[in-house]
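ok so heres the complex, two chains, lmk if somethin looks off
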Amino acid sequence: MANVAEANPAPHTGGHSWTRWLVVVVPYVWLILFFVAPFLIILKISFSDTAISIPPYTPVFEGFGAIGDFFSQLDFENYIFLTEDPLYIWSYLSSLRIAAISTLLLLLIGYPMALAMARAPTSIRPTLVMLVILPFWTSFLIRVYAWIGILKPDGLLTLALQTIGLMGPDQQVQIFRTDYAVFIGIVYSYLPFMVLPLYSALEKMDNSLLEAASDLGCPPWKAFWKITFPLSLPGVIAGSMICFIPITGEFVIPDLLGGADTLMIGKTLWTEFFGNRDWPLASAVAVILLIMLVVPIMIFQNQQKKVV
Amino acid sequence: MRSPRFDATVLTLGFAFLYIPIIILIVYSFNASRLVTVWGGFSLHWYSAMWSNQGLMDAAWVTARVGVLSATLGTILGTLAALALTRFARFPGRMAFSGMIYAPLVMPEVITGLSLLLLFVAMGVDRGFWTVTIAHTTFTMCYVAIVVQSRLLTFDRSLEEAALDLGCPPVKTFFKITLPLIFPAVIAGWMLAFTLSLDDLVIASFNTGPGATTLPIKIYSQVRLGVTPEINAICTILIGLVTIGVIAASLTTKRTEIKRVRDEHLAARGATT
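and the predicted structre for the whole thing:
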């Protein structure tokens, strides 16, 4: 993209440079102030001590002149605490496990859907895309809430299974408040995020390649693995990252559908912050989570740049 | 594997999975019985109960104001960011800038929420309506930037260049030529920003203060206590509003798209004769 722009210099690059400045500077400053600066503050607070006062932490450094002071007062207490209490390590590992399994499930369900959409007649494709997007516009919270009524032991799934006779009248579905309910909730909520990037990769595909393969006697399943799947890899990577990264920090789904033993780091951070009011520890939890997600975020950004 | 029947089955199952829970939720908002599994007949009782629930209505009003304000601010900032990304090939820190646009899209909400809260505390700002609005503006502007950017990348720049060549100042060119052409994307961006703001629980929970309880926070605190048909009723209204909005937006986009193509055809014919 940069090359195109350089080959075709925009006529208004010279002259009125103040408007050009404004276009870049206003969103830039906003993002530095409200997106980058908060990360520096979270980093700083993760190195400070808990105090009873509000805000509940003692600042480690005041003003920007005291850089030397800052380093001499750095306090790794919160981080050491995180490694000592197995709750945190298990939360991180369990989050990664749940996110990885969910992403795999999403690929397994989303890929056939995206493929079927891409192979559908051109006339109905916009409608199909619309049908995938519509639930995505509907509130996340509402969609998770809808599953509570279904999965509860005395909910609609139990009722349905009892009605068709798969379950005795005294039996109940024991899914609600387990990891299974969390998987169902995550797959349900994130499915549109997986299907759309896959679809846009599959839709662009040149069908003549598949025709050539079939003319040369390649069986369809082999053509799929040799041609369709490799060509859709950018979509697979984009979809997986768009799902994996936020799922790792997910709070609403494990909180509403998961059980007391469902450990996820988003929930742990929330409890640390709202329950125990330990802001420095919550900050340390967030910093480690961010460090864990740096690599997937970089992959996602590179992918996006290639697409654009 | 390539049979149309396989495709049709996959799509039917997939869409059933996506829609059945929402349909159940809507149906049970009209249930006269309080129990989820018992159908007590059709009733609008829960809608009137919702209507007279002052806490819920206050929260809805706060959410609407936060949504409109943050979506509007986010659309302005996001459109500027999209222009910066597509129209200026080089400026200092361009890589960092595009990174800042893409990162909030996937950033876990707990991190965004907590870090912004700590910023507001460090600045000594009282939490409330404005802090939630700023928080929402920050993450929605990135979505708007992506939507508008994709439109700016595909559009024909010759009109813009013609105006500039004829001596139209850049700012005027933007308002007369560029903005009308990208307007459907700007509107779509605004709608996306508004629904994202309407939907957000986590970031709002961190950044809210007394008197600024948003609807998702209210719904969440009630959902924790159990499923009530009143919540189904308010959810149904929200789903209805969003559905009407999305369908209206897509129809408008389609119509302007058809008009644009027709205009271009006419212009092309005019140029050749």
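quick notes: Confidence is low (pLDDT under 50) at residues 1-15 of chain A. thats all i got rn
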